[in-house]
Structure formats: C-alpha cells, structure tokens
Fold this sequence. Notes:
Elements lengths: L1 E5 L2 E13 L5 E10 L8 H16 L7 E7 L3 H9 L3 E11 L5 E13 L1
Parallel strand pairs: 3-4
Antiparallel strand pairs: 1-2, 2-3, 4-6, 5-6
Amino acid sequence: xxxxxxxxxxxxxxxxxxxxxxxxxxxxxxxxxxxxxxxxxxxxxxxxxxxxxxxxxxxxxxxxxxxxxxxxxxxxxxxxxxxxxxxxxxxxxxxxxxxxxxxxxxxxxxxxxxxxxxx
Length: 119
C-alpha cells in the first residue's frame, strides 16, 4: 500500500497484492486500486501513486523482467484507463462482473476491463 499526503491531509492511495505464482514461475501482481481525493485530481497524483506501486513491485521481485501485472478497470472510468495506458497496460478483455444481491441471488453487474502489463 502507498499513501500520499499533502501536509497532514491524505490526498492519494494505492495498493497491490500478489496474485499467485504462474506456471512459468514468474510472479504476478494485481493493482488493487489507485485513488485520489476529488479536490486533488488533475495534479498527477495517480501517476505518482502508480509509479510508487510499480517501483515497490520491482524492488520486491529483484527487478526481474517479465513480472506480470493486471488490474480491473470499470469500462466507464476513462481517467483510470488513461492512467494505466500511460504505464504500458493494455486492455486484454472485458468481463461482466456478477453482483450478489442481499438474497444471495446473483445477477450480472458492470463491465470491467482486465488490463495487463509486464515489468
């Protein structure tokens, strides 16, 4: 997790997690989220946050090439799609994510793109 502060104010945050081992033994990580406080948008804090997350993953994997990265981005989140594109991610597929209602019944929800890249 990475937290960005301006003075004592939290203005951005991001997190990643290890997704598991692939069969070719290269690590794979998911970018769980990158977010910025609404009033701080447009100041490239998402770029700073993403850069810090990727630097941490690089350090954690001893700067090995070919480390897999992925994230799920809502189809209507143009700002996030542009952010991931700037860091070399490409949309691999679109998935409709099921939503579980209070009764336990599932229904189809929103479309999310699976964005992938490699370090």
